[in-house]
Amino acid sequence: MDPDKAPGYDPIAEEFETYEDYLDSQINGTDMYYLENIELARQLVELGIRGNGEVIKREEFEQRKAAAEAVREARLNRKPKKLASQGKDLTGCPLLQALRDREEAVRNGKLCTIIFIRDRNARGQEVSGYIDYGHRLAADGGGGMEAIFARKKRLMPRPTDLSFYNWETHLATANPTPNFQAGPCWCKGLLMLSLLAVAQRVMAEDVHGVMFKSKRDRKVIDVDPRSPPGDNSSRSELATDEYTQVVLYDHVTRRRA
């Protein structure tokens, strides 16, 4: 079967990029000769005074475009995707092995994973941060994580991740991601982010209330190392020589009905 004629195919939605293009398709040279105004000609077509047969309204056109896009996305999502970790030798890399084991579940939306990493960057500065694994998998078409699984690059926190803290420059950032939003405490400023990093580092600060919320099921993931991580969530600290500290927070997602 021609994929363009698959169930859900809408010739109008597929052929015309905009409603104006659709109207223009029903305007001929004679119309423009007498009207001499494209906007007036479009109005007459939309009103049904000119044109070929019944003309759909703008609202219906937009609805059909949205429906066609949804069908296209669903068709693309059904195609099997190559895993970034597939075929990679991860011997001696506990973090990458753990991420490989989670990749498929994260990609299909059954699992959301937050990666806490503390280590030194290429400049020798100590940095720490929380990484939305699903966000990283989707970024750059997945090419970034594929290079990491191939061990061409190291997985490190970035200022654009869920959260980031540089211990030398004191740069602190917090960002929403497609899977998580920061808890209410972030609204009070980024000071709590540094306190949270301290808690992960020496467990010396009271950081109760620092948390992230899943956008899928609205459940809260508490990343305070002394508190339960929350419903359907688990905390796993990895023993590894690759980084100073690595903690994985896994959240089994359950969408609201």
UniProtKB/TrEMBL annotation:
Record's keyword terms, sorted: Cytoplasm, Nucleus
Cellular component GO terms held in the UniProt record: cytoplasm; nucleus
Domain of life of the organism encoding this protein: Eukaryota
Signal peptide (from-to): none
Predominant localisation class: cytoplasm
Region (Disordered): 220-242
Purpose: May be involved in spermatogenesis.
Name of the protein in its database record: Cilia- and flagella-associated protein 299
Species in which this protein is naturally found: Monoraphidium neglectum
